Amino acid sequence: VQATAATAIHVNQLGFAPQADKLAVVTDSTATSFEVLRADNGQSVYRGELGAAAAWKASAETVKLADFSTLTAPGEYRIKVDGAAPSDRFVIGADTYRKLNAAALKAYYMNRAGIALETRYAGVYARPAGHMDDKVLVHASAASKDRPEGSTITSAKGWYDAGDYNEYVVNSGISTYTLLAAFEHFPAYYAKQNLNLPESGNGLPDILNEALWNLDWMLTMQDPHDGGVYHKLTNKTFDAMVMPDQAMKAPRYVVQKSTAAALDFAATMAAASRVFKAYEQQRPGLSARMLAAAEAAWTWAAAHPTATFRNPPDVRTGEYGDQHLDDEFAWAAAELYISTRNDDYYRAMKAEQTPATVPNWGDVNGLAWMSLAHHRARLTPLADRKLIASRIDGLAAALASTWKSSPYRVAMKDKDFVWGSNAVVLNQSMMLLQGYRLNGKVEYLDAAQSGLDYVLGRNATTYSFVTGFGARPPLHPHHRPSQADKIDAPVPGFLVGGPQAGQQDQADCPPYPAKLPATSYLDNVCSYASNEVAINWNAPLVYVSGALDELSKQ
Ligand code: G3I
Ligand code: 9MR
């Protein structure tokens, strides 16, 4: 099924808003021009010159850009270049990413722990409940006077982290926050969205209903006796590739309280307390409870500033073992400052020393700046608004400059092709969008669009990296339900990790097609290093797809 012709046309396999920047990449071609054809009758509607040939080291290709941004007429199209098969079909039109955004959010529902997915909500992906987590053991590493080793707690709900069935507070933090930010920044887009969840129609927007499923779980991960937060809720080893209700029946554990978990928890709960304040009627007391939980976790972290996490010897599941905690302190302080307007938190953030970086689970500095920028009009006089603007703009400008000089027109450098590279490019887009929201530089919006184009097909692999979306989506993600459910198509709406040269799963997989950063990818269930799904990777997909739909209307 793979196009093997040397010359190939890579384009976003979904499409573009009429006013969006529209680019395709043509590989290893001697052609100098391209055409855009109507998909229904092949009529040529646009002709343009290809850009100059440039070498992209990450994929070892020589590529030319096709820019058809001035084609704005709604319709379905293909691109044609002499010597190549016509491109995949794509659409120009309004709300191009509505369905993608809804599916990317629904994927969280599909990954819920502690609930049966019913046919009326999950369709063919209905399944019995797994992991009720009503008797979770306190692991030796987490034992305290109030909760000794082997005592049990209840820790229901939450999302499975990824293709595995464990739940990790550090990764939950950035994921849940990003969904909350999508809602905070673009409330109109999400207000009427109906995701067909069990909670739909209860007076909360569905994006918040979904976020709440995980926030409820996160609250159980805090020890009420001291405010500390367990790092994870987990088996001792990874489950086999089975459905949730068939997973290990041995009890699960809460493992070691960590500083990173406490701070990511504090930041996320502080942000959530702001968002849920408007829903006091639907959820009386929730906002205040979240803020109190956030402050208690902050106090614990301040008293235990170096409780870094490494797996205890008998626990072999995901580690999320960040050793650098300045950014977690800064993010928690920023969110607590915004939610309480208490200047002590602003001082604790150490704004002058905090850089703005593209966020990931282990580096959350960018989230602090993103929240401060969004709330800049409502901060106390102490906040340095110039600094906030210059941090956001500085990061966006650096990303846009890489984007501009990249043969593929992506902000990705070689070092960005890490485990979960597809989320790197989307988090770059999310930060570019913060720059655009701040000062309206269209170049930032265009560069953000390119990040979504990349994961939807304008990349060096020919794939659209979201299950169920585009002409060639992944069919075999490392996702236990998708593998074990006996349904051919994987659960839709999941972004897979993407190419990276580490190949840490090589022992479990057939050989990869290539070892280059941008092409080292395997659509095979074995490939947890390039083809797993994860809640922190879907979150910027939600943010960016919704933002581009909404901003294209303005
Ligand atoms: O920190 C080092 C850095 O100093 C070094 O320069 C760089 C060079 O490769 O490596 C960095 O470490 C990487 C680490 O992530 C931090 O970014 C490791 O190579 C890399 O293997 C590691 O990948 C993580 C992976 O788990 C393995 O631990 C991914 O970020 C993380 O997303 C992934 O998360 C897993 C969970 O553990 C379990 N559940 C599924 C989930 C998704 O695959
Ligand atoms: O399934 C696991 C996946 O969720 C993790 O991201 C990955 C890396 O920690 O590990 C996977 O489990 C594999 C294990 O590490 C090695 N043996 C094969 C397992 C996959 O079935």
Produce a short descriptive summary.
With 554 residues, this protein is α+β, with helices and mostly antiparallel strands. It has 15 helices and 14 strands. Mean pLDDT is 97; it is low at 1-5.
Summary keywords:
15 helices, 5-stranded mixed β-sheet, binds ligand G3I, disordered N terminus, Glycosyltransferase, binds ligand 9MR, 554 residues, 14 strands, alpha+beta, globular
Can you walk me through this structure?
With 554 residues, the protein is an alpha+beta fold. The chain has a domain at 98-343: Glycosyltransferase. It is built from 15 helices and 14 strands. It is globular and about 75 Å long. The relative contact order is 0.13.
Bound compounds: ligand G3I, ligand 9MR
Beta-sheet strand percentage?
5-15%
Q: How large is the count of helical segments? A: 15
CATH architecture of the domain at 98-343: Alpha/alpha barrel
Shape from CA axes?
A: globular
What structural category arises from helix and sheet content? alpha+beta
The biggest beta sheet reads: 5 strands, mixed
Overall pLDDT score: 97
CATH class of the domain at 98-343: Mainly Alpha
The SSE order reads: EEEEEEEEEHHEEEHHHEEHHHHHHHHHH
Number of strands: 14
| Residues in helices, as a percent range | 25-40%
Distance separating the two termini:
40 Å
Poorly predicted parts: 1-5
Strand order of the largest sheet: 2-9-8-4-5
Give the radius of gyration. Answer: 23 Å
User: What is the CATH third-level topology name of the domain at 98-343?
Assistant: Glycosyltransferase
